[in-house]
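Render Peroxisomal carnitine O-octanoyltransferase in 3D.
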Amino acid sequence: MFGWSCLSLGGLLSVQSCPWVGGRSLRSRRRLLLLEPSVERLSPATGRRHRIPGHRDVLCILWTCLMERIARLVISKQNCCSRLPAVLNSSSWCTVKPFANEEEYKKTEEIVRKFKNGIGGELHQKLLERAKGKRNWLEEWWLNVAYLDVRMPSQLNVNFAGPAPYIEHYWPPKEGTQLERGSINLWHNLNYWQLLRKEKVPVHKVGNTPLDMSQFRMLFSTCKVPGITRDSVMSYFRTESEGHTPSHIAVLCRGRVFVFDAIQEGCLITPPEILRQLTYIHQKCHSEPDGPGIAALTSEERTRWAKAREYLVSLDPENLTMLEKIQSSLLVYSIEDGSPHVTPEDYSQVTTMLLTGDPTVRWGDKSYNLISFANGVFGCNCDHAPYDAMIIVNISHYIDEKILENEGRWKGSENVRDIPLPEELIFTVDEKVLDDINQAKAQYLKQASDLQIFVYAFTSFGKKLTKKMRLHPDTFVQLALQLAYYRLHGCPGCCYETAMTRYFYHGRTETVRSCTVEAVRWCQSMQNPYASLLERQQKMLQAFAKHNKMMKDCSTGKGFDRHLLGLSLIAKEEGLPIPELFTDPLFSKSGGGGNFVLSTSLIGYFRIQGVVAPMVHNGYGFFYHIRDNRFVVACTAWKSCPETDAEKLIEQIFHAFHDMIQLMNTAHL
């Protein structure tokens, strides 16, 4: 679409990737239909000419329909993507160079040489054997190690959240609009759910290459369930061809839980009918005492939550039934009482409330919490285990386009059928459960108050200008971040940028290590008063070229962080000692083992924004999206860390944007 698709996180997709476009363009349909001249005849009834298709014309129509069917999201039987390769990347350890002196680097080089010629080669062969028997040798390992084995509270440390962009057009903040807008928002979500059920969401493509779509089946009716040592993911979603699927929505309001069905008499309930259900819940919760806030337990440390859940179920078998109703619900809809400040240039407060808001009105383990505020502002909070951010970006963009298309209104019938009122899920609790809830809320609110979140728009220019200068817009942001960190902290910052690997069967992500030797040399030149403009520009372009190549390599299965993870896990499973490579100080200093001080991701070229917590205590979380005339960045840091400051980092990034453009404009003068 923009010419940068192969190097992005999947946000730049062909027209076929947009479910509201319908797959094939009108122009291509016409091209097919012009293969055989058709016959025009005069209708005796109307006096108008009508076309009778030729035989080849009919075949072309049938072929078009067939191709459109093939292009749909066949998530139940998607076999078009190739196996995830297990590639040994011999140049991977160059990435530690920015963080090492000469002596340290030579020592690491020797460790790498021994590893490659010894245990590393043996582990790689074992990994190749594993890859022979699995279409994706990493899938199960990644899910477990990155998400399900993690014991820290996941609601703040693992989940991602983000504000909806509707305030930028038809839904500016306005008190009293929460329920009406919420009914329309939910209805568009339900329509997307139906597209998935009917397998009518076209397969995403980069150019003509299809991407794996399996993560989309985890968007609805999916929930993480806590375990003592390892969690699990329960997915209840089924396509129509696979059979029955849950069709109820869970609503959380003031510590209480309700459910209602989204299907009545075989069809979706309408916005007026959804409004009736939401109004009933809202009035009931605002005229009666608050509920116990069972949902807060999902914000607890994972093992404590697992034990609390076991106890809750032991109190009353009906508690398990109600938990499963929440787990299997299409999504959780949260009714918040707050009215966050938000403008198109500053999403900070609403994003803070989405990621760190009231734990009693969001189910932290749910794949999709749709959150509404009293002033008609929306956003989401999602568990990261089942899918990556681009899945929620896609549905959010779909809904944004639908709200625009319909001018923010419901234009259908106002009739409301006599449908059942929402059912309240009333858990059996005792003093221990209430104590567990209070403890969960206390630890959550303590950590939440420590998280610093800023989301600002840079509006001086955007993708249009960087493309004009032949600079990849994503790389532009990544290098600006490197320069900003270097200026703020006086040293390079090891950086994780997400590369999508959805070219491969059940592919998810790979790590792009953005802090390259080339990037550091450029940062140093920018701080060197004796470096010429031409030298700075040359070094910057070298850094651009290096980053672009790395992104392409990582997206096409030639990265190395996931491969190294595989080797370490093979050693662990075989009961072997941890190879010296993984205990070398430069391994963690360069970000290995989840120690990146900059955890970053491009989330596309639409209006959708998101946020995550930092990967490490002395680090930053950094999500951003790119538009023609602006960059919107979200930065997080822990207030308790004296070294970091999210707002200052953003200020430095915006300065870097200007410096980079000025460098391109003046280097040849």
